[in-house]
């Protein structure tokens, strides 16, 4: 039985969020799972996520919200697709069947609807699923599961303004004494920084950290702010000073180390970045198989390679982790990072298979929002990356440049998508087309305007000016 600090049936009812089960243990385990999700942490005392999921099913096999959170967490992790994974598809169907056979609350019914295998979250119709979670939050603004699922879905869509406003709308209803209330600061801060309110984002995240120093998401939000402002030394000092607080959040730790390494890449201290890659990012990625860890490792090697670092052997190692996901096609963001690895490892058959699989799904995407985007955004970016890899920099620019203001649609954060901005600049610098070389200089000037005093921008500017010397 989880500790008494977790909420039982009566406590959930008292908060206006009743759960349709008579099992106090199931209610507490639901709370324990939600807490781990919000804090980005496998709590060993609870058996981590997996232990909690097993225990919640044992406590009450017919607990609908137990199924919603358990299956929803697997879906939100994007490591598996119900299109290919029959066990996962069956879990979604089972949740719907249970809901239809019970007298559950309207709020719980909406939760089930959001993951219904007919069209919504389980099949990557992120916009419709988000609408359902927002409907829940209108009547139940303290439903943290709805808020977090919506937040993650907006992240996968690159829906920056809705991600910010979704949290802003519910903040007044949260009181400081409510469980996990301080973590809303990190969620709101992240929405603020993704909509370029950097000063406010830093302030809000720091308010969260003043209450909960080990809130890894608030730390992560501040790391983003310093990255986007190119305040490199400030970022390095902050991450080092806070390391003992956030490294315990094992689900997010690798990502925070990735942010730390980005400061070193920005400064041109590549060996320091590689040390973090080897000791933290790749090590954790190999151990967890987490999608976030995989895309971070992929992106980091790509950035280092663009900075003329030889990472050939590391690509081959990483391929062993990403290759099994070649046919998943859960999110475009994941696909593009898997492609980085197969291209870096010179595994042309895997690269071609990934591209062709995406092209095939784009022909008849149905309600799958990611596959709808594949034809207009995903496939052309894949092709641009392949052209760059072949040394056809002219072709890479021609494919990438028209998409630069649509790349937000692939999801992720500004910091994560910046790898594609860098790829476009490097392609333009390397192109033999004089117009592209001039374009490179324009893009670097533009970058300097939004990130003044960036060492990386200075290096790129020197290269651009050398072309016109």
Automatic annotation (TrEMBL):
Q: Under what name is this protein listed? A: Tetratricopeptide repeat protein 38
Q: Which keywords, in A-to-Z order, does the entry hold?
A: Repeat, TPR repeat
Q: What is the lineage of its organism?
A: Eukaryota, Metazoa, Chordata, Craniata, Vertebrata
Repeat in keyword set: yes
InterPro entries attached here? TPR-like_helical_dom_sf (IPR011990), TTC38 (IPR033891)
Source organism: Sparus aurata
Task: Name the gene that codes for it.
Answer: TTC38
Q: Give the record's family classification.
A: Belongs to the TTC38 family.
- What Gene3D superfamilies does this protein's entry cite? Tetratricopeptide repeat domain (1.25.40.10)
């Amino acid at each position: 039985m989880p500790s008494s600090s977790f909420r039982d049936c009566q406590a959930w009812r008292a908060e206006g969020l009743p759960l349709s089960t008579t099992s106090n243990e199931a209610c507490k385990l639901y709370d324990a799972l939600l807490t781990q999700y919000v804090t980005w942490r496998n709590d060993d005392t609870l058996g981590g996520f997996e232990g909690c999921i097993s225990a919640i099913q044992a406590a009450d096999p017919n607990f609908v919200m137990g199924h919603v959170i358990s299956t929803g967490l697997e879906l939100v992790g994007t490591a598996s697709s119900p299109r290919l994974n029959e066990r996962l598809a069956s879990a979604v169907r089972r949740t719907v069947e249970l809901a239809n056979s019970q007298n559950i609350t309207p709020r719980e019914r909406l939760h089930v609807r959001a993951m219904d295998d007919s069209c919504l979250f389980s099949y990557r119709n992120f916009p419709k699923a988000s609408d359902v979670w927002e409907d829940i939050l209108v009547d139940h603004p303290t439903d943290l599961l709805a808020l977090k699922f919506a937040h993650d879905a907006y992240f996968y869509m690159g829906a920056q303004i809705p991600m910010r406003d979704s949290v802003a709308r519910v903040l007044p209803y949260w009181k400081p004494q409510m469980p996990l209330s301080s973590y809303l600061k990190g969620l709101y801060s992240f929405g603020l920084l993704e909509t370029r309110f950097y000063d406010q984002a830093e302030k809000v995240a720091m308010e969260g950290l003043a209450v909960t120093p080990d809130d890894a998401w608030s730390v992560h939000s501040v790391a983003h702010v310093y990255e986007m402002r190119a305040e490199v030394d400030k970022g390095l000092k902050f991450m080092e000073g806070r390391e003992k607080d956030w490294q315990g959040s094992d689900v997010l730790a690798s990502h925070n180390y990735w942010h730390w390494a980005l400061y070193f890449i920005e400064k041109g201290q590549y060996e320091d970045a590689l040390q973090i890659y080897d000791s933290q990012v790749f090590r954790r990625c190999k151990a967890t198989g987490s999608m976030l860890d995989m895309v971070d490792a992929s992106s980091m090697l790509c950035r280092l390679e663009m900075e003329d670092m030889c990472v050939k052997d590391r690509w081959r190692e990483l391929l062993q982790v990403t290759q099994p996901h070649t046919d998943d096609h859960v999110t475009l963001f994941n696909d593009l990072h898997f492609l980085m690895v197969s291209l870096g490892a010179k595994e042309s058959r895997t690269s071609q298979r990934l591209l062709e699989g995406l092209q095939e799904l784009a022909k008849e995407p149905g309600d799958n929002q990611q596959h709808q985007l594949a034809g207009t955004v995903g496939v052309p970016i894949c092709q641009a990356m392949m052209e760059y890899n072949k040394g056809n920099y002219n072709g890479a620019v021609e494919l990438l440049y028209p998409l630069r203001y649509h790349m937000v649609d692939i999801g992720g954060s500004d910091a994560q998508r910046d790898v594609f901005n860098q790829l476009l600049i490097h392609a333009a610098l390397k192109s033999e087309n004089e117009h592209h070389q001039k374009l490179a200089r324009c893009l670097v000037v533009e970058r300097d305007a939004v990130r003044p005093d960036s060492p990386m921008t200075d290096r790129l500017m020197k290269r651009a000016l050398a072309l016109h010397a």
